[in-house]
Design brief:
mainly alpha; 232 residues; single chain; 69% helix
Length: 232
């Protein structure tokens, strides 16, 4: 086997502007390791929701598997999407658009499955009292968005420490993941299982966070120093 000779790099022919810009960098940790910060913030958010609002009154009727188990499943897949967003931000490791779309579609299927499993286990509706529909709509749309925004912000901060060449896809994965994490904790409080309520408020909050992720990622890609010049 021929020995490989180690040589000292010759920078003599490089443009001085390039030489002046060279700086040592620390390699990025693996995406799953970088997602641990989002995991910790997600756990804090879940504990805060439980401490502030309590546990839904139909917890016994649902049982641990339908209440806590499905919430863990939803949150876990949210973290999968967060990891996917962090990976997609690394050039050469980005998922194809088709793969990213499949990941988002699986997330939608998980939401639908959890919604209807919970409904079949213990059907419940928004109370028929005056003003209840508006109140439930407002709190169940607004609160998950407020819980999810810090998770989305942290994820995008981590994303733009890399070099995302597909900010739209990266933002969609980040927003959907943050939404699943946020609603995974909120569903432990809201006792209404009617799919009409869940899909127009809980899932609508996930959709809003996904849209926010796309928009913010596109904006950041134009204002963050060092972000890719060409967007796809």
């Amino acid at each position: 086997m021929r020995a490989i000779e180690m040589t000292t790099p010759d920078f003599a022919g490089l443009d001085p502007r390039i030489l002046d810009d060279l700086r040592p960098v620390r390699p990025l940790a693996r995406p799953w390791k970088r997602s641990l910060a989002v995991t910790a913030l997600g756990l804090l958010a879940a504990l805060t929701v439980t401490a502030r609002f309590g546990v839904r009154p139909d917890a016994v009727a649902l049982g641990p598997a339908m209440l806590w188990g499905l919430s863990v499943v939803q949150a876990a897949y949210g973290l999968v999407l967060i990891v996917a967003a962090l990976r997609t931000a690394i050039p050469g490791r980005a998922f194809a658009a088709r793969t990213g779309g499949a990941l988002l579609a699986i997330g939608l299927l998980i939401v639908l499955a959890i919604t209807y499993l919970t409904w079949l286990t213990h059907p419940s509706h928004v109370p028929a009292t005056s003003g209840a529909a508006a109140a439930y709509f407002r709190i169940c749309l607004r609160t998950p968005v407020l819980v999810g925004l810090p998770l989305l912000t942290l994820t995008l901060f981590l994303v733009f420490r890399a070099y995302p060449t597909r900010p739209g896809l990266t933002g969609a994965l980040a927003g959907f993941g943050a939404g699943l994490l946020a609603d995974g904790s909120w569903r432990t409080y809201c006792e209404v299982t009617d799919p009409a309520h869940v899909l127009t408020t809980h899932f609508a909050s996930v959709a809003l966070l996904t849209l926010a992720g796309i928009v913010l990622a596109q904006v950041f890609s134009r204002v963050v120093p060092g972000a890719p010049a060409r967007r796809r």
